[in-house]
């Protein structure tokens, strides 16, 4: 009994130490994300009180007005103030005056003017924009400026002139691998608008599902979707929702590969005889549209015609990726066709196919976008190349005069930290492109491939990391301080949840389900230091189908865990304080103690829930890692050196703990290694400057790390 | 710097001690809620593995099949197992065999057979039901039976014969005061099905909004809803969603009072000249339909005819509550009408109005339901009286031969604990009704009035407390052990979040918004011991309009906080252990220490966020309460008696802390008082038996409490 109670006590220990952002920042630090092109803070502040009034001058329409009241409602939510709901008629008196010059494009479109200026003084915030979309971007900035202190809420006096660096700033959501209900799409559109993204790329078809209603070819979706598809009415509602937020909707119909789901209802489209079943696995599959048969183009003409009417955007994405051409190689009729037409290889056959699509879509007033592979000398210059291969391939396309959008480096499904994505630039500083060539690079897109996400977890894979990409695509190239980005990201992340996003809140739901209990503290501790394996290793380690429940430990784990990041920062602070090693010591000790004690507490939970079995070895190792860290800390504090044996045993532990299991891995290994090496290298501290010593220890600790995160 | 860091350390202390349910329960305790009518556990278990198969025998249709696969998916989510998705053809081999005798009613209807039997052995679970709805109820039971241990997942061997005690088991959601989007409605229907509720009562009109599209009278919703209404397509989709789960949808059009929103577009309906505006306040308002004019009935005939077609249920709820008749008193034409017709008072005039509605609806094949006030000798016996006045009024109606549904005692918006609702019985043990009379009492409905709920907070006001009401209405009257209900409620609450409910997860979102920071530990501690003020005191203390943001401390607070409940149980355990006072001592000390230390930690947060200003006095007092509790604990431990002055000062603190502020109050006052009185009365312990002493202390501590929670 007593033992159980003690276990219970340990069980509720809190283990999420976060660094105090305020201690690192100057007197006033803004929380704008993305950072505006030009930004100058002044002295003074505009108080936000119950009496706040809004006025509109110049052009106004329903979209602008709706957005203003939505912004007011969000402001109310963050202040508890109930604000007036009618416009102030005297513009000079308004707390917020919005001057909009015109409607802008009827439908959000590529290259629309999104600029705005915002001048905030003690008496008024003046938001000016040439278009409604520009005004919307400015409203988001206005909302992000809100601060508060003991005197109340305020917007600091500031002068902002802002416009995006890139015209194409997208988020792709793959709704094919796992269907995502409308509320998922809507809340992600809200989040996109909050960080000024402007293209929603909707990956609607793939081997695992054909997710769009076609009135002309109903078998496509009725047989290819398990009943999980978007009706045309629903799609129109999403387009309207996106338009309201100044976001384009670019649909993707992935061809000629990734087409299994098409062939379920229409086996005659494929390059080998059917029947076909909806694909349940993740990977690259054989079924490929037959580019040699006129009936295929007839159906595509009908389908794309229907889709061209449904989707108002100028661009339609036709996929084009990962066609390995296996069905083509094995089909004598296709081989004969190639011979007859003088088509020398599959890449050229795909170019033939793409060209036909380009013509079909041109007749419908649309331009074509496709993945890297569509690029071929035969193709016209008005296609957009969507690069999953890298900035290099993008630059090459630009040199040839093709427009391009970068996604390589923005694959958020690969579980890399925000910092990594953040530093990927569509036009890197070292780019040799001429200005004219560079202009072909339209921007970038974060890609949320959905092999391993459910509606419950998808937000946690997209946010907040995608906000870092949004900043890369909007803000000047020189805005690239990773620490400062993270500081602002923490605030934005909270604001995204206000909009309905679930990336933080659903973690607790997953943990409670795993534990079958409201008591999840030790599990929270464990989850706070692990992350899903990167790249496509989850599928390799833990192969599951698209029907698998996504409720495991790895689904609760998140990329780029805050606690691990703060732990690293605190350890750096400790080592920088050599040879005293006082800085952050208590916080580190607390955190490491939590980790050391996680095992007995987790044992209680594991006994109650079979879902936690796979966390057992992880919890035990976290316990060992915590103990090792505490030992290192105590060597550093006391100034005594550990034995060589100690170092070796601890390094062996690290090697053991670094192996991924249950499709997760520890995110704290390099920092623990750093502490252990610091303790082991302490005797060298006299021989080097403290700074030199610290740099060396850090380098040693990270030696193998770069390989892992590449 | 050091101080700030220490504050930070305190800041992350964990302060949610929960009692260990397992320590109070026998070797095997089920988690069924509601408890079945007959339940007998056997030895053995059906293992739930990847090889689990399902077979269906007898009648089957799409609804049954959909529900089975949904149940399988939920089972997968709770086990991480990927289960086969085709039926087993050999019934004898199936792990779960479902034998359904027939479809049941096409549309869920009053009195439909919802019974089922479930026999689980080592080799098979056999679910038998006369109707599809019965099978659905059984599937929910099957899912709730899932347990796990180190050997894996299993369903314990059991024999269940189950049917509901009452035919009408409802949840009313008021979508008029605050419009609730479709996803709120849908997820609440999911939750209802999980606890076997079968009537969704949709309060669609009120002074603050007319929320349903009428094709015949579009001004009703277009002018009366701020654009927040349900289209008829949406309503049909909700009805289909509910039908799929065996839930009836009873719409309410509240008349003749509560009708301001009707009069905005149709001022001619009201009993006084317009114009009218949508009401923004909470309360009872004058605008009332004019029962003396034929044009009013013409519109109602048209509208109700349209609604009768839209809603397939046999019943339509016409409201009828809280008509104070002020407009009638002041309208000479109405007064003349009454005189001419010999109608002696407003109640009779309303009966005249109701009777006209009864006739209109009878022509459309519908029966009428209305609140208490509609009861009048002139009305036919086939109306259903919806009692907000109490079991007494219900019994009286039953004696007169009127059917009735109880909601008094089930007003979940009043913020009472689940235990209070749980013990309210539509036919209490002491009822003097004959069996025949009792049969008129159809059941009950939890009512979620929405003056103070947003889509973000509504689930936290409904769940999990409504599950306790669901058990009252389904299970035998003798199932009434409050502690056991809470034990099972904790598990059900987790399962409801799996379905998408947000009652737990959204609390953290509200706290982070309040703190403007991810660091919310001290705020979590505070929120865990407070609850919103009860009854309608929020509106009195903190009057706001329907447009107010619902993002304050009180919105994050929840009725019946778990920590306060566990604290009370632990304190009881401590006192029961007199004179040793060992039992639970360490846990209590930990919890009280957390409370004592909440103040400096909260101070840091408050300095950063103006939204936390109103929590300042509460945090300070919690700190004092914690200190007082620790002092009491230490007197008890050491066996020394405090001075009279100590007692008096502490009692004065309690009186001070008991006052509600910021529309919240402490839920821990009686328990702290109990500890203080125990310390103060320790010297009496020798004079009485320990049990007697404990009872007396408890009684003293609760003296004023009953008044408060009544």
Describe the structure.
Two copies of one chain form a homodimer. The first copy, chain A, starts with a helix and ends with a helix. In chain A, strand 2, helix 3 and strand 3 (96-100) form a beta-alpha-beta unit. The first copy, chain A, has an eight-stranded parallel β-barrel with strand order 8-9-12-13-14-15-16-17, surrounded by five helices. In chain A, strands 1, 2, 3, 4, 5, 6 and 7 form a seven-stranded mixed β-sheet that branches. Chain A contains 30 helices and 19 strands. The longest helix of chain A is centred in the last third of the chain and has 23 residues, at 616-638. By secondary structure, chain A is of the alpha/beta class. At the A-B interface, helix 1, helix 3, helix 18, helix 19 and helix 24 of A face helix 1, helix 3, helix 18, helix 19 and helix 24 of B.
Task: Describe the structure concisely.
The structure is a homodimer of 710-residue chains. Chain A is an alpha/beta fold.
Q: How much β-strand is present in the residues of chain A?
A: 5-15%
State the fourth-level CATH superfamily of the largest domain in chain A.
Answer: Glycosidases
Rg of chain A, nearest Å: 28 Å
Overall number of structural domains of chain A: 3
Number of strands of chain A: 19
CATH architecture of the largest domain in chain A: Alpha-Beta Barrel
């Amino acid at each position: 009994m007593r033992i159980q109670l003690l276990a219970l006590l340990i069980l509720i220990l809190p283990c999420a130490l976060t660094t105090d952002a305020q201690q690192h920042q100057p007197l006033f630090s803004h929380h704008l994300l993305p950072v505006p092109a030009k930004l100058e803070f002044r002295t003074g502040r505009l108080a936000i009180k119950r009496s706040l009034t809004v006025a509109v001058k110049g052009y106004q329409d329903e979209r602008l007005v709706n957005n203003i009241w939505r912004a007011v409602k969000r402001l109310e939510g963050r202040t508890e103030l109930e604000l007036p709901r009618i416009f102030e008629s005297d513009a000079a008196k308004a707390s917020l005056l919005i001057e909009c010059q015109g409607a802008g494009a009827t439908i959000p479109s590529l290259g629309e003017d999104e600029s705005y200026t915002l001048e905030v003084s003690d008496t008024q915030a003046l938001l000016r924009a040439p278009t409604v979309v520009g005004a919307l971007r400015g409203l988001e900035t206005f909302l992000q400026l809100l601060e508060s202190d003991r005197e109340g809420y305020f917007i600091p006096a500031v002068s902002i002139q802002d416009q995006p660096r890139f015209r194409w700033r997208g988020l792709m959501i793959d709704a094919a691998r796992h269907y995502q209900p409308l509320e998922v799409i809507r809340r992600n559109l809200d989040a996109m608008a909050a960080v000024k993204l402007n293209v929603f790329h909707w990956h609607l078809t793939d081997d695992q599902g054909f997710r769009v209603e076609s009135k002309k070819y109903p078998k496509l979706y009725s047989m290819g979707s398990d009943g999980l598809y978007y009706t045309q009415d629903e799609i129109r509602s999403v387009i309207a929702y996106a338009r309201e937020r100044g976001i384009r909707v670019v649909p993707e119909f992935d061809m000629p590969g990734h087409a299994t789901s098409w062939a379920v209802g229409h086996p005659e489209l494929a390059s080998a005889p059917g029947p076909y079943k909806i694909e349940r696995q993740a990977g690259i599959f054989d079924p490929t549209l037959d580019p040699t048969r006129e009936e295929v183009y007839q159906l595509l003409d009908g389908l794309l015609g229907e889709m061209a009417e449904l989707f108002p955007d100028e661009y339609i994405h036709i996929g084009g990726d990962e066609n390995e051409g296996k069905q083509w190689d094995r089909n004598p009729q296709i081989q004969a066709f190639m011979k007859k037409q003088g088509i020398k290889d599959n890449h050229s056959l795909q170019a033939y196919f793409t060209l036909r699509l380009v013509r079909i879509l041109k007749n419908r007033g649309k331009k074509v976008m496709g993945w890297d592979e569509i690029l071929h000398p035969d193709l016209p210059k008005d296609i957009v190349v969507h690069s999953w291969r890298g900035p290099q391939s993008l630059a090459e396309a630009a040199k040839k005069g093709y427009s391009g959008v970068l996604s390589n480096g923005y694959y958020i499904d690969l579980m890399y930290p925000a910092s990594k994505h953040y530093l990927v630039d569509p036009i890197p500083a070292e780019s040799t492109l001429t200005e004219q060539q560079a202009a072909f690079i339209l921007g970038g897109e974060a890609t949320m491939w959905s092999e391993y996400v459910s509606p419950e977890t998808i937000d946690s894979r997209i946010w907040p990391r995608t906000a870092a990409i949004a900043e890369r695509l909007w803000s000047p190239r020189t805005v690239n301080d990773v620490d400062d980005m993270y500081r602002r990201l923490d605030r934005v992340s909270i604001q995204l949840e206000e909009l309905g996003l679930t990336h933080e809140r659903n973690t607790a739901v997953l943990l409670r389900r795993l534990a079958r209990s409201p008591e999840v503290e030790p599990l929270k501790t464990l989850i706070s230091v692990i992350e899903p394996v990167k790249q496509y290793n989850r599928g390799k380690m833990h192969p599951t189908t698209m029907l698998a429940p996504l409720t495991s430990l790895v689904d609760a784990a998140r990329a780029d865990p805050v606690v691990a990041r703060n732990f690293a920062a605190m350890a750096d602070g400790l080592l920088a304080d050599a040879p005293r090693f006082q800085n952050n010591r208590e916080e580190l000790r607390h955190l490491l103690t939590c980790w050391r004690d996680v095992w007995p507490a987790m044992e209680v939970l594991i006994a109650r829930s079979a879902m936690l079995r796979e966390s057992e070895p992880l919890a035990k190792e976290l316990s060992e890692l915590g103990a090792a860290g505490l030992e290192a800390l105590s060597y550093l504090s006391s100034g005594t050196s550990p034995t060589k044996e100690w170092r070796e045993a601890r390094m062996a532990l690290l090697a053991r703990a670094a192996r991924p299991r249950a499709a997760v891995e520890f995110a704290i290994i390099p920092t623990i290694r750093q502490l252990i090496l610091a303790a082991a290298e302490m005797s060298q501290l006299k021989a080097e400057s403290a700074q030199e010593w610290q740099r060396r220890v850090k380098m040693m600790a990270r030696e193998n790390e770069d390989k892992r995160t590449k």
